[in-house]
Amino acid sequence: MSDPATTTEPDGAPRIAVLDILRGVAILGILFMNFNDMGRSLWASSDDIRSLGWDAADRTIWFLREVLANGTARGMLEMLFGAGMVILTDKAMTTASFQKVMARYYWRNLILLLFGLVHLFVLLWPGDILHTYALAAMIAFLFSRLRAQDLFMFGLSLAAFTLVTGTSNYLGEAQYRADLTVVQAKQQSGAALGKEDRTLLAADADYRKRVIAADAAAKARIADEDRSRRGDSASWIMAQWRVALARETDPAAIGAIWEAAATMLIGAGLFRLGIVQGLRSRRFYWRLTLLAYAIGVTLRTTGAIETMHFDDAPKIGFAIGEVARLAMTLGHVGAVNLLLTTAFGARLLKPLAAAGRTALTLYILQSLIGLWLIFPPFALGLYGTLSWAPLMGMALVIDVLLLLAANLYLRYFDIAPVEWTWRSLVEGRALPWRKRAGVRREVGASRAA
């Protein structure tokens, strides 16, 4: 089997075409996760998805998005970040000390952290992932010298934690519901209730009061965001800052860093085993794709159906969520590598390499287009006017245009603007950015079946 085509950036960093294609898939896919939060209430995505529209088309699009895409673009980017960590640091450690390599890698990610904070608080995208990835990468680096098997062990820590704690909570809730049903039946039949029965009924009454209060608070939060983001420029800016600060001070922000660092370690392990960059056989990728999708689609479908019931019945979604996300992400990685073993697949996916090479710039452009052109009150003002189906349709159109723009740009330039700025700051010098005459830039992938 031949190696994937490899090129270098102006700073000498290697690029592997397969990874660029995967990154292109991920960066374009992430718009489908973000666009609804740009065009409708960000809180509604977690509080009440029906607030974004819930007719037949919306339900279908949401279901497909939930099963096939939710969290997987993020997962692919995290795995690729881990692969990049190996590429950037393993060879460097053959000629430099761990401390020197660590210092350079941390400097690289501190600058990325700064970019993320600008994206978060200046460009006003509360869903920024750059600052999270920068922090996660610095944590993941501490484990980077481990064997692939150990990387997987640490990488699966969040999935194991959520599976164990989530299953325990689910079983406890199911038992509570079963006990409550028995007591309620006794109450309806007029049978005498014991002390434990009365305690259980009182606890359930208190629980229902808290649920009603939480639902009311969620509706108020969504309504407040809607009013602010439909108002004037000042109210729109303040709304974005409020959401950003609320998300960054929520304990879930720690979970996001844990998730990213863990998945980066899995990506590092997959790279060391030659899996993510396509060095395994076609049979291997068939098996990986089928197994991963069998697990991922089954678990994701279960979780999506549960969500669409909109009731307070015990739900297994939290327990299986991270396992399902990782499985679907691996399925996508396997499917892309499987396609690349064929001439048709390689031609089909080749344009995505340009999106991968310009991923950081495209990510910022997605925010500029959505947050500063299409939806804000001072521009087109379309916030709150589109439901799930048209939002995802518009995201698809934007992705197509961005993909065309990326391929056109790379005909004339070697590096995208945001990438150029980041790497120039890392290097401490202005890197060349125009296409170098006589230098052939590979964007395809060379594969043996």
From TrEMBL:
The transmembrane segments are: 12-33, 105-124, 130-146, 151-171, 252-273, 285-305, 325-348, 360-382, 388-410
Q: Where's the DUF418 domain?
A: 270-428
Kindly state which keywords UniProt assigns to this record, in alphabetical order. Membrane, Transmembrane, Transmembrane helix
Tell me if GTP-binding is a UniProt keyword of this record: no
Q: What is this protein called?
A: DUF418 domain-containing protein
- Organism of origin is Sphingomonas immobilis
